[in-house]
């Protein structure tokens, strides 16, 4: 069966076996909100917007169909998605009307982002488009430019993106509109986000979890989301799950989620139905908020949700070549795909477009007064609010001690939350305590904000913990794109769950940079810990550093990856990332106690530079080395230091330089990234090619926290890479000890030492003469340690004592 078989358009769901009594829980409201003038204006607005949206898909000229449509009037490629457009226009028109009537502060988030023609048409009608895109003036010329330029090179793309004024959601990948909306209303008590969730999107896992997000909204401090589930019954070529559920099933579902469902489905009176339903929903929201803000909150309030049932592709042609179009999946994209070449289809297109009577609602290419009457007079802007980041250096820890990076950072984040009680939040998938960031939970007003738990209800907590990475990511995006700053801490292995969401967000920011009017926003900040290097208690399933590579693949101007080597460096990095704008920041570190190698002042300089020579672990402060050993990451850097100490004893004639890299992006070829080192600076750190001084090429060994292939790709383009060796995570692991994890992945001190001897032997004859013997001995020590681990279930005593250099 190539596509859905249909016996009728807009097919109803089969009746369920749920008792009819469940329907007493759905909401009925009187349909009497609109005056006759308002009703007429809304209908005219819809006709105008539907016309423009349809014309955008098909026409490149004759944009008001003032004469018969000719083949040359039709675009060469017909791109766009009509099916969702009438429903989006319907919602947009009524949101405009209720804003005009009540002075509501509102945003619209559109889950079906492929319905861009509808949103662009509405923006043009209200003149918001011309504010940001002057060529789309609200006149015949601007309308022609909009219609002609849709989905063609140089014009608007087929999906909503950052070029769409008012958008805070990249509209390509489905599933995240609801969580983005909830993030947007946090700490904005007067904001109501109207969120359209398509019934195709409603099938996604992220949407299914996001329905619970209201349980993290304190109505005393935050705004509200009004979800509108648009049930038009079809995806690309099949019926939707929600479209096959009757009112009893949907009522049971949403009542179980904690909502009051109101069905909007009276097609013959849809405008009064929707207007009354939206007014009821707004009244319910205000009732819940008023109770909370007067000190008498409703425990477990039932928030409103609207379920809008309209036909797919409503108002298009009824059928074509014996197949249903309106009310079927065939209206999802282009209802008349051969209109340019088929006279019959072209005639049907003419009749379809003329059915909206464009001469009435768009006289001479401008909206009529009736259309304009429901358009709000004000526009909403969300300005970036820089947060107050305390001076981290005052909270640094003592050099030479052992500290957990996460414990130290947790205390700092607690200060950040207190300094920014309405503009900073932490979104975490139930891992703060495990990740040793629990200092942020010490005070009620900086702790959790789970409103269904009496222990954290109405306390002003800054932490959202929900075991859904998708929901955390969506909330973080909504919070960030409405001007605030957030942080997403997670187990390293599971950040990959939001890989594509992060990529979609980066596309949004990339396009925002290319507009002239988008203002800066805070960065998307990820804190990655519980890493593979110390996940020995959980095992192989929890060992996966692949999210580093996901960030490296982003546009270089957006991507930042940091692997601070100790607690002071991590403090510096966190403070920097929280202040930064418009980036995707990834910080990777350990939650276990590890040495504090640098004082706060030294860490500050090290982080500013992105990398430095660690003289204390190098021979003669790193002068004239035979080999350069590079650590990138907390545990692998410890192994580099341990290797340097071992080499000092076993091969004293080998001259070693130790380098630590904390900013991964410095390593790319000159000019490849804003942080990439100049070639001369690269040579100063890692040595030159050896030809100019006649000493031969010094070999460089990288001990890297992530997958070696990532570092190879990053380094590609640098000169002299034949002298570089790399070890990193080899996809080896289990429930074992910390040292065994290093041994299994060839990142242990012994593997580093062996690589150093091999490299040094190529330029130092004194090392070369004993190289084979010493490498064999070093790897013998590795084997002995592994035998001890498997015999005793623990690393040899003293394995992680801080190495000493005499």
Automatic annotation (TrEMBL):
Coiled coil: none annotated. Residues 591-802 form the Xylulose 5-phosphate/Fructose 6-phosphate phosphoketolase C-terminal domain. This is Phosphoketolase. SUPFAM superfamilies: Thiamin diphosphate-binding fold (THDP-binding) (SSF52518), TK C-terminal domain-like (SSF52922). It comes from the Eukaryota. Keywords: Lyase, Thiamine pyrophosphate. Its cofactor is thiamine diphosphate. Pfam families: XFP, XFP_C, XFP_N. Residues 35-381 form the Xylulose 5-phosphate/Fructose 6-phosphate phosphoketolase N-terminal domain. Belongs to the XFP family. PANTHER family: PHOSPHOKETOLASE-RELATED.
């Amino acid at each position: 069966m190539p596509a859905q078989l249909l016996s009728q358009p807009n097919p109803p769901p089969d009746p369920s076996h749920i008792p009819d009594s469940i329907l007493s829980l759905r909401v009925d409201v009187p349909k009497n909100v609109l005056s006759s003038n308002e009703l007429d204006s809304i209908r005219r607005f819809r006709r105008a917007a539907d016309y423009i949206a349809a014309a955008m898909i098909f026409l490149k000229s004759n944009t008001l169909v003032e004469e018969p449509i000719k083949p040359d009037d039709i675009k060469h490629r017909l791109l766009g998605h009509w099916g969702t457009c009438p429903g989006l226009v319907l919602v947009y028109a009524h949101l405009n009307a209720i804003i005009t009537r009540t002075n509501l502060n509102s945003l619209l988030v559109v889950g079906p982002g492929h319905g861009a023609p509808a949103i662009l048409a509405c923006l043009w009608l209200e003149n918001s488009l011309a504010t940001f895109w002057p060529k789309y003036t609200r006149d015949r010329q601007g309308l022609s430019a909009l219609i002609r330029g849709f989905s063609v090179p140089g014009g608007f793309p087929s999906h909503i993106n950052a070029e769409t004024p008012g958008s805070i959601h990249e509209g390509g990948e489905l599933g995240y509109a609801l969580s983005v909306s909830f993030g947007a209303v946090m700490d904005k008590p007067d904001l109501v986000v109207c969120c359209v969730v398509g019934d195709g999107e409603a099938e996604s896992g992220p949407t299914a979890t996001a329905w619970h997000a209201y349980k993290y909204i304190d109505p005393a401090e935050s705004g509200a989301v009004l979800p509108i589930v648009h049930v038009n019954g079809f995806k690309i070529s099949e019926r939707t799950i929600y479209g096959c559920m009757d009112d009893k099933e949907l009522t049971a579902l949403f009542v179980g989620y904690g909502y009051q469902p109101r069905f909007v489905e009276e097609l013959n009176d849809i405008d009064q139905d929707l207007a009354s339903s939206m007014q009821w929903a707004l009244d319910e929201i205000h009732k819940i908020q008023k109770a909370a803000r007067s000190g008498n909150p409703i425990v477990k309030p039932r928030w409103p949700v609207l379920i809008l049932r309209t036909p797919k592709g409503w108002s298009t042609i009824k059928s074509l070549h014996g197949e249903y179009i309106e009310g079927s999946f065939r209206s999802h994209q282009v209802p008349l795909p051969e209109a340019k070449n088929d006279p019959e289809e072209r005639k049907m297109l003419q009749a379809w477009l003329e059915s909206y009577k464009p001469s009435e609602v768009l006289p001479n290419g401008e909206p009529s007064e009736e259309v304009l009457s429901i358009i709000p007079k004000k526009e909403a802007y969300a300005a970036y609010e820089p947060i107050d980041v305390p001076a981290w250096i005052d909270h640094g820890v003592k050099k030479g001690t052992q500290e957990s990076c996460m414990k130290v950072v947790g205390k700092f984040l607690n200060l950040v939350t207190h300094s920014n009680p309405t503009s900073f939040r932490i979104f975490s998938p139930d891992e703060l305590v495990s990740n040793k960031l629990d200092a942020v939970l010490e005070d009620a007003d900086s702790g959790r904000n789970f409103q269904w738990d009496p222990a954290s209800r109405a306390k002003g907590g800054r932490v959202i913990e929900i075991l859904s990475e998708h929901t955390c990511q969506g909330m973080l995006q909504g919070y960030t794109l409405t001007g605030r700053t957030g942080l997403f801490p997670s187990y390293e292995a599971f950040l990959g769950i939001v890989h594509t969401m992060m990529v979609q967000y980066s596309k949004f920011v990339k396009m925002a940079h290319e507009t002239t009017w988008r203002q800066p926003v805070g960065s998307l900040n990820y804190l990655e810990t519980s890493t593979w290097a110390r996940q020995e208690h959980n095992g192989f399933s929890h060992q996966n550093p692949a999210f580093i590579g996901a960030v490296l693949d982003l546009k270089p101007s957006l991507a930042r990856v940091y692997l601070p080597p100790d607690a002071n460096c991590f403090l510096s990095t966190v403070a920097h990332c929280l202040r930064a704008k418009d980036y995707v920041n990834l910080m990777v570190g350990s939650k276990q106690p590890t040495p504090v190698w640098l004082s706060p002042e030294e860490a500050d300089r090290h982080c500013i530079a992105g990398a430095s020579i660690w003289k204390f672990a190098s021979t003669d402060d790193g002068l004239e080395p035979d080999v350069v050993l590079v650590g990138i990451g907390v545990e692998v850097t410890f192994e580099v230091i341990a290797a340097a100490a071992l080499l000092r004893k076993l091969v004293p004639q080998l001259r070693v330089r130790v380098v630590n890299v904390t900013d991964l992006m410095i390593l790319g070829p000159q000019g490849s990234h804003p942080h990439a080192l100049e070639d001369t600076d690269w040579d100063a750190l890692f040595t030159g090619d050896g030809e100019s001084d006649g000493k031969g090429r010094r070999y460089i060994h990288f001990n890297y926290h992530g997958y070696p292939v990532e570092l190879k790709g990053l380094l590609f383009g640098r000169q002299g890479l034949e002298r570089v060796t790399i070890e990193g995570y080899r996809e080896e692991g289990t429930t074992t000890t910390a040292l065994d994890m290093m041994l299994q992945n060839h990142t242990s001190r012994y593997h580093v030492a062996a690589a150093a001897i091999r490299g040094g032997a190529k330029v130092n004859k004194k090392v070369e003469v004993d190289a084979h013997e010493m490498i064999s001995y070093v790897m013998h020590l590795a084997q002995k340690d592994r035998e001890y681990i498997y015999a005793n279930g623990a690393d040899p005593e003293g394995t992680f004592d801080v190495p000493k250099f005499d």
